[in-house]
Design a protein that fits this description.
single chain, alpha+beta, three-stranded antiparallel beta sheet, 45% helix
């Protein structure tokens, strides 16, 4: 009996002295933190790229409206142009919602929140622009696009404020003054 206890004690001392596998243990302790950091950085990069492309699409489209290349802009025409310029945005035409309003240059009033596409509604209301701006009028165009997070269960994708069906919204705003053409 004492011999068995002695052998067990020797094996336990040998096990305690053996340091093989320490690297694996350290890796398993540190890996989840690095993966969380990596997935958050990836999600943030994708979100930033999409937002930059949405802003670029808005700027290019507003420039065309401002100089008269798009004489009578409609919601469909503007949406198509923005989505054409912002080619990285997935399923852009179905997930974009535009809002165009005339504003007084001398008495600016904040516009409030923008409505985004509601993915729970199968039929979205048709948006018509009642006034696309006349000569020397200040117009504000806003776009809201919904995206699915790339990695929705961890990191930044888990903590982004969601709008409709787990999608997050990117909003771009641009303003312009209609050039006098006459």
């Amino acid at each position: 009996m004492i011999g068995m206890i002695t052998k067990l004690a020797q094996r336990l001392r040998a096990f305690r002295a053996d340091d093989s596998g320490n690297g694996t243990l350290e890796l398993m302790l540190v890996l989840p933190g690095f993966m969380l950091l990596f997935t958050s950085a990836y999600e943030g990069g994708v979100m930033s790229t999409r937002h930059v492309m949405l802003e670029r699409g808005m700027d290019q489209t507003v420039r065309e409206v401002r100089i008269g290349r798009i004489p009578n802009p409609t919601n469909d025409v503007l949406s198509a142009r923005i989505c054409e310029y912002a080619s990285i945005i997935p399923d852009c035409l179905t997930n974009i919602r535009l809002e165009m309003k005339r504003r007084d240059m001398r008495n600016w009033v904040p516009m409030g929140d923008i409505d985004c596409v509601d993915l729970d509604e199968p039929n979205q209301p048709v948006i018509t622009f009642s006034n696309t701006g006349g000569n020397n009028e200040l117009m504000v165009l806003r776009a809201c696009v919904l995206f699915e997070p790339m990695i929705p269960s961890t990191g930044l994708g888990k903590h982004i404020p969601k709008k409709s069906q787990g999608s997050y919204a990117l909003v771009a705003t641009s303003s312009y003054v209609m050039e006098p053409f006459q």
